Amino acid sequence: MTKKIFPPVLLLLAVVSAQAQQANPCAGAGYVVAFFNGVNTTFSAAVSEDIVPLKTIYGNQFNNEPVSYFTFYNPTDGLLKDLAEAFAQKQQESPEIANRWELFWDLIDGTTDILTLVLVENPALADLINSLKNAVLNEAQVQAETLISQANFQPIVNQFASTMTTFLTEQKKIMAVAHSQGNFFLNSVYDIVHPTLATESLEVVQVATPTTTVRSVGGIYTTSSTDLVIRAISFVLGSTEPPNISGPIAPSEDTLGHSFARVYMNPTYNMLAQIKTDMDAAMLALQPPNSQGSAGLFTVTLTWSGTGDEDLHVIEPNGTHVFYASKQGFTGFLDVDNVVSFGPEHYFASCDPTLIQDGLYQIGINDFNGADGETATVQLVTAQRVFQAVQLSTGPTRGPAGNTSPTPVFNVQVTKNADGTFSVSKQ
Fold first, then answer.
1. Quick one: how far is CA 422 from the chain centroid?
2. Cα-based angle 167, 171, 177 (whole degrees, multiple of 5)
3. SS3 (DSSP) at 336
4. Domain spans of the chain?
């Protein structure tokens, strides 16, 4: 839907024909296998160890379409703070434990029930409790109430939702796999993204889940009966999905029986077959998104937090101004223009080396109509990297008057390398 009011002179700013859009050689769909990690996971473990079993299963193609892999990494801030964050997420999901922060300490130091029901059965849980006690000693001045109240996971959820929206806008089908605390993040992201989809282009597989409910079709998940981490959470906090498969007792790879790569995805144990069956069913059930976005040398995606019409603006290095009234640039194209609510709006820069301009691309936004006071999220993605999204206020409605001076968000620097390739960075 094209806006009816805009300065006619702005129509003259596009200097090339629509052939640039058609010449984009990196436009394409395919699959994204996404992984959501659990607590106390380093970045290197999440993007290497945990993602490897997924790559081993599907490789680079599925159903004759390309498969790419992406880790929705939840950064660790130390075991104690990670658990406080997970408790806050559990509290959001299960209001009955709200303000019951003493349960957090019960989980850390072990209650009589836990010692009776778990430690006697398998002393391996003592290692977890001891490590948590050590973490408590290191944070002796910090109270659980403060940690939990300060836990702010919503920015991470918003970043993940923005990234997932970008993939879907670019016609990619997503199969998301979550482990442990990653299930909280996946559920939150799913609840934001899935209602906006016209097709079933997002399917989820949930493993070792501490959540009360799951989002996978049919409520399918995999939690081992010998996963002592999930058992401890269940004993103390309750309201978790019950174990549904037998697992190894105190496996040498991880005596707590909780690790994603070393236990759940280990071909030695029977959980892998069930998880793979769930993943295959999810991949086969995926449908192409009802979207028109293209991949590119880089893409910029705009979403916002409510109704109204927020506009994405890109000024290319040669001065070409790409926006709703002049969608075709010299290098790129505004291939998605949302005028109703939430977005997305989407710009891609062509991968055709004859069209790529090196230099500075200026990214901005304008509240055209009725989106004032909301939060805009602007996401930059390349084939090699998903950059941290930028969030800012949409500001007051400015209408067409704002077209000539959009609010700056960030700049994209494209540099031509000596070998003829191009590098992309954010400034």
1. 26
2. 50
3. strand
4. 8-27+294-426, 29-292
Length of the chain, in residues: 427
Question: What's this model's pTM, rounded to 2 decimal places?
Answer: 0.80
Residue 390 bridge partners (DSSP)? 378
For residues 339 and 383, the answer to whether their CB atoms sit within 8 Å is no
Question: Residue 2: CB partners within 8 Å, gap ≥ 6?
Answer: 324, 325, 337
Closest CA to 227 of 178, 186, 271: 271
Radius of gyration of the chain (CA): 24
Q: How far is CA 269 from the centre of its chain?
A: 29
CB 98 within 8 A of CB 91: yes
Q: Give the helix ranges, DSSP H, for 194-238.
A: 228-237
What single-letter amino acid sits at 81?
K
Which candidate, 287, 260, 220, places its Cα nearest to that of 54? 260
Q: Which fold has domain 29-292?
A: Rossmann fold (3.40.50)
In this structure, are residues 337 and 385 in contact, taking their beta carbons and an 8 Å threshold?
Answer: no
For residue 293, the Cα-to-chain-centroid distance in whole angstroms is 18
What is 360-408 written as a DSSP string? EEEEEEEEEES-TTSEEEEEEEESS-BPPPEEEE--S--GGGGGGSPEE
Q: Is the peptide bond before 344 cis (omega within 30 degrees of 0)?
A: yes
What distance, in Å, lies between the first and last C-alpha atoms of the chain? 32
pLDDT tens, residue order, the chain (427 aa): 334 333 322 222 222 333 333 445 575 689 999 999 987 788 888 888 899 999 999 999 999 999 999 999 888 777 666 777 777 787 777 777 666 655 665 665 544 444 444 455 556 666 665 666 555 545 544 555 665 566 677 888 988 999 999 999 999 999 999 999 899 999 999 999 999 899 999 999 999 998 888 998 888 999 999 998 888 777 667 678 999 999 999 899 988 899 999 999 999 999 999 999 999 999 999 999 998 889 999 999 999 988 999 999 999 999 999 999 999 999 999 999 999 888 899 999 999 999 999 999 999 999 999 888 889 999 999 988 889 899 999 989 999 999 999 999 999 999 999 999 999 999 9
- Residue 390 to residue 28: CA distance in whole angstroms: 25
